[in-house]
Amino acid sequence: MSLRQLVRPIATLQSSRSASAAATKQILESAPAAHVTSLKNGFRVVSEDNGKPTVTIGIFVENGSRFETQQNSGVSSFLEHLLYKGTNKRTQQQLETELAGLGASLSSETGRDHTAYYVQAASKDVEKVVDIVADILRNPKLDAAAVEKERQVLLNKLDELEGNYQNLTFDMLHTTAFQGTGLAHYPHGTTKSIQEITADQIRQWQADNYRPVRMVLSAVGGGAEHGKLVGLAEKYFGDLSNEYPGKVPSDLGIRFTGSEFRFRNDKFPAMFAAIAVEGVGYGHADALPLAVVANGIGQWDATHGSSHNAPKRHVQRLVEGYGLHGFEQFNINYKNTGLWGVYFVADGKDFENVTNIHSIIQKEWKHMACALEAQEVEGLINQYRNRFFSKVESNTGKAKFNAKELLYTGHLRSLADVEEQLSNLSANSIGQAMNRHIYDRDIATAGVGRTEGFPEYSYIRQRMWWWRL
Amino acid sequence: MGSLTRSAASVKTVVGRSSKAIAPLSITSSLGSPDAAIDHKTIDSLQLATEKASRTGLFVSGLAVKGVNVTSRRHASTYDVPYPNFDECRRKSTLDAKVASRDTEPERVAFTRAVKGVAFGSFGLWGAKEGVQLLLYSKSMSMATRALAAIEISMNDIPEGTTKTYEWRTRPVFVRHRTKAEIDREKAVVVSELRDPEHDDVRVKRDEWSVVIGVCTHLGCAPIAGAGEYSGYYCPCHGSHYDASGRIRKGPAPRNLDVPPYVFKGDTIVVGEEEK
Ligand code: FES
User: Fold this and answer.
1) CA of B221 to the centre of ligand 1 (A)
2) Which domains does chain A have, with CATH numbers?
3) pTM of the model
4) Please, what CATH class does the domain formed by B151-271 belong to?
5) What angle do CA A440, A441, A444 make, to 5 degrees?
6) For range A224-244, the mean pLDDT
7) String of b and e for A400-422 (b: at least 16 CB within 10 Å)?
8) Model ipTM?
9) CB of B222 closer than 6 A to ligand 1?
10) What residues of chain B, 1 to 30, have a C-beta less than 8 Å from chain A?
C-alpha cells in the first residue's frame, strides 16, 4: 500500500506531461496547414492562409555566392540590388510609389545559397503584390547607368563591411573551412569582381539562375488562399521556361577542410574568433539535435544582466575574468553541408585567457556529446521549442520557414511534425548526433583583430576529445 | 520611400557596438538607401561612422578612416587578399571539392588508425598482461610467506673445512663443515669467559656442522667466513671476531651469531624447518 502511494504521484505526473504534449500536438495539427503545389515548369508555390489582416509574400531563389566564381563573385547580390532599380514597365519611382500606396514593404537578402525577396502587405493586396514582385524579378531593366551607380554603392559597402567584425570573422571562417569550394566566396564579392562584373554578366546570371525549378513562392497570412495563389503563380510565372540557355549552375563543392585563418590587426578593438566543425545539411537527420544543442549553449554578452549567477554553467565559468565580451553558439545549415560552432569576442590580451575561453566552450560541447542527462535534455528541447515557435509565429518567419523547407529538402514539415521530432529527441539521440558530428572532429578556426593570443590549431583541435573509455 | 525597409536591421550588441545579427548569411539591399556613390548616409555607414568616431575620437583619426572621409577611401580590403591554394599539400582523395571530406575520411585515416591500432594494441596487450599478473600475484604467496619457506642444502656440496653461504628468508646463512681440530677447539672454550656465554653443544646439532645466520649482531653487516683472530667469522665493518661456533669473541658485537631452525634429512640440511 505504501509503495502504491509512493508510485502514484509519479505516474500522475507522467501522464499529465504526456497529456500536455498531446494537447500541444493537437493545437499544432489544427493550425492552418500549408499547401504545396508544383507548376508544370517546376515553379513551386506554398501558401498558408491564417486569416490575419496582413500577409507576407516571398520569392526565394536558389542562387548566391556558392554558385559564383572568383571572377563573378558578388553577382547574385549585385543582381538583387539592381532589381530595385526599376523594370521595363515601372521606373524605380513608380515602384516605390506603388508599394507605398499599398503600405507594403519590400525587403530582400542574398546569402551564400539563396536570395529572398519578400513583401509584407495587407491581405487584400495579394494579387497586386504578386504582380509587382513578378515584374521586378522577370523584367528588370538592368540598364548600364543603374549598373554603374550600383557598382559604386557596392564598393562602398565592401569597405564598410570590413568594419563589421562579426561579418568579417564569419566570412573568413567560411573561406578557410570551405576553401576551394563555392562556399568560400563572399556574398558581397571582392573589390576586383565588383569592379569587373558587366551588365551582360548580370543578365546572364539572371537567365541562368532565376529559373522556375530554383524558385519558390511562399505566402503566409490572410488572403493567402492556396487556389488563388496557384492561379496567380500560373499567371505570372507559369510561362517561365525551365530550359537553361547557359550552363546549369553548380554549387561548386562542399568539401570541409580543417584549417586555421588568422588576420591580425591590433587596431581592431578586440579579438573576434570563431571555431566550427563541419555541420550538416538542412535536411539531415541530425540537423535538429545539433540545432537544439547549439541553441542550448546559447549566447551571452557583457550587456546581459546575469554573469556568475547565469543559469548555464559554462556561462558562469566564462565570465570569470577572461576578458570575454560575448559569445554566441551558431548552427548554419546549407542545403548539403553546414557549420556548427561558436563565435566570441574577447580582449585577447592574454593567451591563457583565450585558451580558457576555448576550453570552457569545448568542454560544454564534450559534455553534450558524452554526459548529457535526461533532465537536461528536457530543458534544451524546451529552449529550442520556444525559440523555434516564436520564430515562425510571424507571417514572414513562417513564410521563410516554408520556403526553406521546400528549397532545401523538397518537402514540407508542418509545425506538428517538428514538434513530433522534437519530442522524440532523447539524451541518447542527441549524444549520438554530437558524437557523429562534433566530438573529435576536425575544426576550422578564424581569428580576426587582436589575435596575438589566439591559440594555435593543434591546441584547439586537441580539446575536441576527452580521455574516456 | 519609407515603405521600403531594410530587412536585417535587427541588432544584437556584442562588445558594446552594434553589428548585424549573427547569421552572416545575408547581406541586404534596400530600395530606401540613396544610390549616390559617395554618399554615406546609409544606415550601415552612419552607424559605422558613429562607432568609429566614438571609438577613436572624431578628430584623432576620424578623418583618416576609410569610408568616413570619402576622398581617402581605398578599395583594398581584407576581402581582396586571395586565400592561398593548398591543393599541393592535399591528399589525392581530397582534391575533388565536390566530395564531402567525411566521405574520404575512412581511407585517409586508415593508415594512422592502423599504426595507432598496432601501437595502442600492443600497449594494451602489455597492459592487460600487467593487469593479469598483478591480479595473480595478489592471489599468490605474499613475500612474507615466501620468505618463510625452507631451503634444502646438500651436505655433499660442502667439503670438510669449508663454509658455504646460502640465502634464507632474505638473509645469508653460513653452513660450516667443521674439522676435527675446530670441533675440539670450540668444545674446549671456557663458557664463563664469553661475552654471550653459550656452549658449543647448544649451538650445533651435529658436531661437524655449524649453521648460523650471517648477520653481524652489532649493526647487521655480513661477516666474512673463515677469517678473523678466531678463524671463525670476521665482520669487517667494525671489527667483530666470531669463532667457528659463531660466538662473539672480540669486537663491538654484543651477541653470538643467531642459529636458525634446521633439521637433518638424509644427506641434506633443511634450514627453516623445526625439529618435530
Ligand atoms: S656490524 Fe659487524 S662489527 Fe659492527
Assistant:
1) 6
2) 35-237 (3.30.830.10), 259-465 (3.30.830.10)
3) 0.70
4) mainly beta
5) 130
6) 90
7) bbbbbbbbbeeebbbbbebbeeb
8) 0.78
9) no
10) 1-8, 12-17, 19-20, 22-30
